[in-house]
Design goal:
The chain contains one helix and 36 strands. The strands form seven sheets. Strands 15, 16, 17, 18, 19, 20, 21 and 22 form an eight-stranded antiparallel sheet that branches. The chain has a five-stranded antiparallel sheet with strand order 1-10-9-8-7, with no helix packed on it. Strand 16 and strand 17 form a beta hairpin. The longest helix is centred in the middle third of the chain and has 4 residues. The protein starts with a strand and ends with a strand.
Length: 445
Amino acid sequence: EMPTTTRLGRPLLGLTLVSMIAACSGAASSAPASTPAQARSLAPTASSPVPELVGESDAWLVVGRPGDDRLHVILASTEEEMLSLPIGAPDDGWAHLITATLGQSATTVEDLRAERGFDGHGREVAGFWRLPTVGLDPVPTGLSADGSTIVLVEADTGAAKTGSSRFAVLARTLDQDARVIELPGTFEFDAVSPNGSLLYVVEHLPGPPAGHYQVRVVETATGFLRPDVIVDKANVDEAMAGWPVAQTRRPDGMVFTLYRGTEHPFIHALDSTDAWAVCLDLPATGAGDAKAALDWGLTPAPDKHDILAINATLGLAVDVDPTEFVVRRSVTFDPSAALGITLAKFGHQPSGPVGRRVVTAPDGDSIYAAGAGGIVRIDSRGLNVTGRFVEGSAVDAIAVTPDGATIYALMSAGGRIVKLDAGSGKILGRVPSDGFDRLVAIVPY
């Protein structure tokens, strides 16, 4: 069977999509942080409506709405739509987008090139498949770092469970049939090695403890499930238990997944090249608050080496050394009172970073963390809070423009997107309508 060619969406006029649980033992130390004079902004209320944006300093936003299986590139001030594109897994740089579209009896997998207006080639895979997601991240994954291998998981079609789990592995060229791997038991996608040769899966096990799981390795060329279990090298006999919240991946194969554990959150650091792992315990503060646990986020530190885990709702910032695999420091701050992305780029211009909960500013000096009580701005070196924006309102996602001057925030209530001045936190306006549930990328107008 030869690959097929598809044409989706409008021409881009030269634009290129570039880049938009073990209860590990031990407790990290915690030290209070000083809080200097801070920029503050209060959330809009019914008595002080937020004006709609005007055309000055506009931006293209890549957004989605509930129940919509496509993303839309809109002008923030007018919601004029430039482009509609399928949800997919990007390669490094977002120059290509891998998509999986369900049909009546098969799934069409396509490799789409943004610079060609989302022209591309595809291949049908018998059955119903989707690209995997990890934790709460809405952006799919499943593409190896070198771009050679695509991994799919079975789509939930409401059919009765069979007691086994299936994965489909395809070469990126889409010139060969998919290899379908069937494993007895309940497995979920966790990661794929940089060269695509190893698939890491989470095997769910009966409790206790609640959320009991173990990590296994599958050789993608043969479908062979290795008998050895990936254990925490520092605590080989400890049962793993928890639920994934966020994940960040490095090109060298290190995969960091933040879990909500049964006693405290932790980071599962997996070397997907050499198949070993270490667990790093995070402070247990607020561990019993399931809702607050969802506000953890991971971001690389400005040096691109260390990892920062931040929870704005709990008021915690943790600096992790991913080489020595230790928590170097843990800082607490006063969370904002509540009333109730990965670097992503789009277009021919460099774009700003976008994140579900945590984003590092382009200059590396500040980190923005969203939560149930608004946004906090944190100094990336001292981990001190230097600003609090839209206090009292929950924020689902944040995006910073490439010059670092402007923030777009997706508010939880009503799915409204507001524009903020990154220095003062002043609310500059809002996108005309609401109902959005994703803010995936941003590029200046």
